[in-house]
Task: inverse folding
């Protein structure tokens, strides 16, 4: 009977401290120190074989499977949101280049370079109508034709057309509410259904885009 009252231990995975990769000659140079990410990380995502991080200094960092870190300056101030597509080398980011409520969306082509950095193919302000508000979530469809942005004021904005270019792109407000949109899960399902989770109910809503 006493055996049934004892705590049982379930081992789901082995925990191991990640170390710095060994030197190029296979030696221990850097290989003995615990691996640490850059300070001030604000957001992260993954895809295309890398972990992607944004920080409070406006830099975007890439961490490869071999624990090699690389970065570039994406914003003058800070990075707040990232979305790495899984089927394309396209990264969408939201950040700030100046103080105040001035969020900017930037779309990066990671396969093309501009002065050593990924090529920024598009920049546009993330503002629902003419009301400056903070971005709360971001998602992009894998077909590169839909980008949805949720805002702290309860708005959801959908950008239709090639997300990597300004031409032939349209933006419309799908939803206006009173509470922050905390998530846009599952991207845009079936192209016509966008699921969102407003804070006031903790439930999932969806909006049907009849214009598609």
Result:
């Amino acid at each position: 009977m006493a055996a049934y009252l004892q705590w049982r231990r379930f081992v789901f995975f082995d925990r191991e401290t990640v170390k710095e990769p060994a030197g190029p000659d296979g030696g221990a140079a850097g290989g003995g120190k615990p691996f640490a990410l850059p300070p001030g990380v604000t957001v992260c995502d993954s895809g295309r074989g890398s972990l992607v991080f944004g920080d409070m200094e406006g830099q975007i960092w890439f961490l490869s499977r071999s624990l090699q870190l690389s970065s570039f300056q994406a914003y003058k101030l800070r990075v707040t949101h990232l979305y790495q597509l899984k089927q394309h080398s396209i990264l969408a980011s939201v950040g700030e280049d100046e103080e105040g409520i001035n969020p900017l969306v930037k779309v990066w082509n990671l396969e093309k370079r501009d002065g050593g950095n990924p090529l920024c193919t598009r920049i546009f302000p993330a503002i629902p109508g003419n009301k400056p508000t903070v971005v709360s979530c971001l998602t992009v469809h894998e077909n590169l034709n839909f980008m949805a942005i949720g805002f702290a004021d309860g708005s959801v904005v959908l950008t239709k057309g090639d997300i990597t270019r300004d031409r032939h792109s349209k933006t419309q407000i799908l939803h206006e509410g009173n509470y922050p949109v905390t998530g846009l899960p599952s991207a845009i399902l079936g192209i016509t259904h966008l699921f969102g989770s407003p804070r006031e109910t903790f439930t999932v809503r969806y909006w049907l885009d009849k214009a598609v």
